[in-house]
From TrEMBL:
InterPro entries: Efflux_drug-R_Bcr/CmlA, MFS, MFS_dom, MFS_trans_sf. Keywords: Cell inner membrane, Cell membrane, Membrane, Transmembrane, Transmembrane helix, Transport. The lineage of its organism: Bacteria, Pseudomonadati, Pseudomonadota, Gammaproteobacteria, Chromatiales. Belongs to the major facilitator superfamily. Bcr/CmlA family. It comes from Abyssibacter profundi. This is Bcr/CflA family efflux transporter.
Length: 413
């Protein structure tokens, strides 16, 4: 059922179009991250990167921008409405894409990628707000599930799209493609989406409201704990994306076929999202989270031993990396849900802060691990193990704290 009445009249979008629009807002980030993977060696070489591992910064800079912006776009959209903030972010994304295409140095590329990510934080935040404005309860969950099903197609296909562009054009056209995608979604939203936040429901944009999300998220020990754990395990995904091209093409020499193998590994992530929706009702968030962390630890420990003795042929790497992402597929969604659970009516502000923190923290950890890459898989495997162990330690402590709080006073709703 609708949660609030839009500012003008009911949105002209039907449910299917709305789901596709939300999925597009979510998918623009996956497209921007994964489409450039095949071109990283050429970009680094042409733009004067001094070290082979420097190419990883093209990925990390985008993620840092994405994380840094989210806490800002939440309060902005609550103050000025969803559509203006969405349009601003997408236009900034499009403009930064053109700058990236015209880059003449590696430093300009990194700066433009950061601004791309900063702009793309708007559709990520506003898409969630649009769903919360229009739907509640089961209907909200249904819409998000449908959007995620559409969204999951993009990380699988994006590297192949980038590889296809390289076959017929220079790497600069990848950013022209992103420019077109940003403008297309901005136009779609401008002409087809109705504003969902009425003037009466808007809050003033000031320091108090900007810091509200930080205050409520950081003060609650349960939310704070799960947020820290999520930041740790998000590094597992960042390390994989940062090193995928180097491992597949430089270590294993698979050439252009790496995009197909990347897609196979991405399918593990999609399978986890599907399985998680089926298993949650039976086992619950806490048990599923512990099991996924223990599974990730076991896989990473085995991988570390095999990497240390350098016995990881390509099929085994695909299996081990895929299983790590399968475990992450459970953890990303469930840790976020556990972090949000105590937030009650502060959910909107807290969600933006949790998204910002986990993205920045996970990117920092993942980038630090990826920078240790030396042609072997030791740093990757050991890094995953350390991230998983850290996440489990934080989760166990947080769950003990949550039980103590529940015995003292009921959690706010």
């Amino acid at each position: 059922m609708p949660a609030v009445q839009p500012a003008s009249r009911q949105p002209i979008m039907g449910l299917r179009e709305f789901v596709c629009f939300v999925a597009a807002c979510m998918a623009i980030n996956a497209l921007a991250i994964d489409i450039v993977l095949a071109a990283l060696p050429q970009m680094a070489s042409e733009l004067g990167a001094s070290d082979e591992n420097d190419r990883q910064a093209v990925i990390s800079a985008y993620l840092f921008g994405l994380g840094a912006s989210q806490f800002l776009y939440g309060p902005l959209s609550d103050s000025f409405g969803r559509k203006p903030v969405l349009s601003f972010g997408l236009l900034l994304f499009a403009a930064a894409s053109l700058v990236a295409a015209a880059s003449t140095s590696f430093e300009i590329m990194i700066a433009s990628r950061f601004m791309q990510g900063f702009g793309a934080g708007a559709p990520r935040v506003v898409a969630m707000a649009l769903v919360r404005d229009r739907f509640v309860g089961v209907e909200m969950g249904r819409v998000m599930s449908m959007a995620m099903m559409v969204f999951m197609i993009v990380p699988i296909l994006a590297p192949s799209i980038g590889q296809g562009i390289l076959l017929i054009a220079p790497w600069q056209w990848m950013f022209v493609t992103l420019f077109i995608a940003g403008l297309a979604i901005a136009g779609w939203g401008h002409y087809r989406v109705r504003e969902t936040l009425t003037t009466a429901n808007r809050r003033p944009f000031n320091r108090e409201n900007l810091l509200l999300g930080f205050a409520v998220a950081l003060r609650h020990p349960v939310t704070r704990g799960y947020m820290l754990a999520l930041g740790s395990v998000f590094g597992v995904l960042v390390v994989f994306i940062s090193l995928a091209q180097q491992i597949f093409q430089d270590r294993y020499g698979v050439g252009a076929g790496f995009t197909l193998l990347f897609a196979i590994i991405a399918l593990f992530l999609s399978a986890a999202a599907f399985a998680n929706s089926r298993l949650l009702r039976r086992f619950g968030l806490e048990r599923m989270t512990r099991a996924a962390l223990l599974g990730l630890i076991a896989i990473a420990a085995l991988w570390s031993v095999l990497a240390w003795i350098d016995v990881v042929p390509l099929p085994l790497y695909i299996l081990l990396q895929g299983l790590c992402l399968f475990c992450f597929g459970f953890l990303g969604a469930n840790l976020n849900a556990l972090a949000m659970e105590p937030m009650g009516h502060h959910a909107g502000s807290a969600a933006a802060v949790i998204g910002s923190f986990t993205t920045v923290a996970g990117t920092g950890l993942g980038f630090a691990i990826a920078q240790q890459y030396d042609g072997t898989l030791v740093a990757l495997a050991l890094g995953n193990l350390v991230l998983a162990l850290t996440g489990l330690a934080i989760v166990l402590r947080t769950q003990r704290r949550a039980r103590q709080l529940s015995e003292m006073v009921p959690m706010p709703s």
